[in-house]
Amino acid sequence: DGVHGFYVPLVRSWICAAGHIPDLLHQVLFVPTDKVGEEAVRDSGAPNILPLSYASGNLAYGQRAFFDFELFRSRVVMKLLQHDVPVWLIEADSTWFANPTYVLSELRDLDVIVGQDGGLTWDLPESGFIFMNATANARAMQAALISQHDTVLRASDQSVGELGAIASEMLMLPKLLKSVRWTSFPRKHFVGGWWYKDAKFRAEVEPVVVQNNWIAGNVNKVARAKQWGHWFLGSD
Fold first, then answer.
1. Is residue 96 a contact partner of residue 209, using CB atoms and an 8 Å limit?
2. Closest CA to 68 of 166, 149, 129
3. How far is CA 219 from CA 6, 10, 155, 175, in A?
């Protein structure tokens, strides 16, 4: 995911946790989008770094700036796919308890694998936790996503900073997924932030990865991670 200054504590906490999971950190490419983010991931010992300048500022879901950044991120992913590099897009506001890459060998013949937000039976594919194989189908889907996203942003009132959900990639994905061979990551092992909210759901799953979503703002994400013992960054 893009690493910028406002997101740095979450990224550093994720790196601290990932560093204790065998054979994981060296498989991750970090894309810092400003100098603060770049220095932070380098100081944290991240081995693979691709700096790409992008002035995003602090981002919150629903803002035009948030969706502009999503579009920038989608174009970066597309460049990698065009060079025959499979991409597993992840976000650092999450907790990984083990190396989840075993799933890719089990599902290697597919174009796309998506995380699902919400409960076990909900259909909410996650745009920020998605694996795309470097196939013609996946490239075509990504190109369609970029085109649709760009069209929505261009058609909206440029003076409006708050767009709500109209430019959300998550809402675009269900239709686009119909054009590829896809499945979800195993629902009981890859869960969204609904896990924090629903005790019944927690009793039904055994997470390998928990997304720290269903909450707004980085400060609130950090507070919740600390509350649940999902914070791995020390005071130093």
1. yes
2. 149
3. 10, 10, 32, 33
- Please give the angle made by the CA atoms of 80, 82 and 84, to the nearest 5 degrees: 75
As a whole number of angstroms, the distance between CA 65 and CA 49 comes to: 24
Write phi, then psi, for 174 (nearest 5 degrees): -55, -45
pLDDT tens for the chain, 236 residues long, are 555 556 889 999 999 999 889 889 999 999 998 888 899 999 998 999 999 988 776 677 778 888 888 999 999 999 999 999 999 999 999 999 999 999 998 888 899 999 999 889 898 999 999 999 999 999 999 999 999 999 999 888 776 667 777 888 988 999 999 999 999 999 999 999 999 999 999 999 999 999 999 988 888 999 999 999 999 988 65
Residue 130 to residues 1, 15, 44, 151, Cα–Cα distance (Å)? 11, 19, 25, 22
Asked if 124 and 165 touch (Cβ cutoff 8 Å), the reply is no
From CA 7, how far away is CA 58, in angstroms rounded?
Answer: 8
Q: For residue 75, which of 31, 135, 38, 36 has the smallest C-alpha distance?
A: 31
Hey, how many other C-beta atoms are within 10 angstroms of the C-beta on 162? 10
Q: Which of 227, 206, 207, 202 is nearest to 215 (CA)?
A: 227
